[in-house]
Write a structure and sequence with these properties.
The protein is mainly alpha-helical. The protein folds into two domains: 34 residues, no CATH class; 211 residues, MetI-like fold (Orthogonal Bundle), CATH 1.10.3720.10. Helix 2 crosses helix 13 and helix 12 runs antiparallel to helix 13. The longest helix has 36 residues. The radius of gyration is 26 Å and the shape is globular. It starts with a helix and ends in an 8-residue tail after the last helix. The C terminus is likely disordered.
Length: 302
């Protein structure tokens, strides 16, 4: 690396780091400032705004509501998107372009248009969706479809699924065992990445939650926006809490996803690595089991 490349890379990286960190630092300072409107720096520091906003019962309720909605949305998205991506990649290649198109459509749908369309459609159907958390979860699955689909499909395309399926079937595995025991462990990184993206997007989403269900199931972003109209310092404290919570969730998911891989590598050093190579878990072979049963014992051999 020559000196000329360093002369322009350092300023660019410095500007990017400042652009990303200065708003967070300013928000953190404003959330602990006694007053910050007459001088360049806060006139004093206090934690009263944090204590006030966290002592309300609505704080815990909205936080739990956002967590539950986000977790349910991730599970529903996994159940729908992961098998569909696997089937399109292995058995229905002609459907893959249509899934690619459907995965792009949510980017072109504004939240307001999607919310009004869902309300108008399901209000005429005898389904328990309107004004319930069910319609909110359904909307989140639609909006976050690109994140989950692209993460899972990219991982599937990097793995030799045909070889894995044939090897698993030769060991006597049925289609469900192939998907659960062979494919899912090898695309775990894509599943974790997609789940992380969906969880982060749903946890901080405001428009759909406000339009589809409103105060019937108040989420954390709705609680935050309410404070922006009354006390910006408490709203800054909530915004920083949301950032910290999302950061902790990201680290926890990545740590949890990395543990099985590390334990698998430690327990079986001769087995294929999880990262970079496909691996087939141990499954009972029908032919091998029959050969073991037919083999005579050591005492019976002459």
């Amino acid at each position: 690396m020559n000196a000329g490349s360093l002369t322009w890379r350092a300023p660019v990286i410095g500007v990017f780091v400042a652009f990303m960190t200065v708003p967070v630092i300013a928000t953190a300072l404003f959330s602990v400032a006694t007053r910050w409107d007459r001088t360049l720096w806060p006139e004093g520091l206090t934690l009263n705004w944090w204590i006030k906003v966290a002592s309300r019962s609505a704080f815990t309720d909205t936080l739990l509501n956002s967590f539950w909605v986000a977790i349910i949305s991730v599970l529903v998205s996994l159940i729908i998107v992961a098998p569909a991506a696997y089937l399109a990649h292995t058995r229905l290649p002609h459907a893959k372009p249509w899934l690619e198109l459907l995965s792009i459509v949510p980017f072109s749908l504004p939240g307001v248009v999607l919310a009004l369309g869902l309300i108008r459609l399901y209000s005429k159907l005898p389904l328990p969706l309107i004004n319930t958390p069910n319609i909110l979860v359904a909307a989140y699955v639609i909006v976050t479809l690109p994140f989950m689909y692209r993460a899972v499909m990219n991982t599937l395309e990097s793995v030799d699924t045909r070889l894995l399926v044939e090897a698993a079937q030769s060991l006597g595995a049925n289609p469900l065992q192939v998907l659960g025991w062979v494919i899912v462990p090898n695309i775990a990184s894509g599943i974790v990445n997609g789940s992380l993206l969906v969880l982060s997007a749903v946890f901080s989403e405001f428009v759909l939650a406000n339009l589809l269900i409103g105060t019937r199931l108040k989420t954390f972003p709705i609680y935050l926006v309410e404070f922006t109209r009354s006390d910006a310092r408490q709203a800054s404290a909530l915004a920083l809490m949301s950032f910290v919570i999302a950061w902790i969730i990201s680290l926890a998911i990545l740590w949890t996803a990395d543990r099985p891989a590390g334990r698998r590598q430690t327990d079986s050093p001769t087995r294929s690595r999880w990262h970079g190579k496909a691996s087939i878990p141990d499954m009972p072979s029908r032919a091998g089991a029959k050969a073991d049963r037919d083999r005579p014992a050591f005492g019976e051999m002459k």
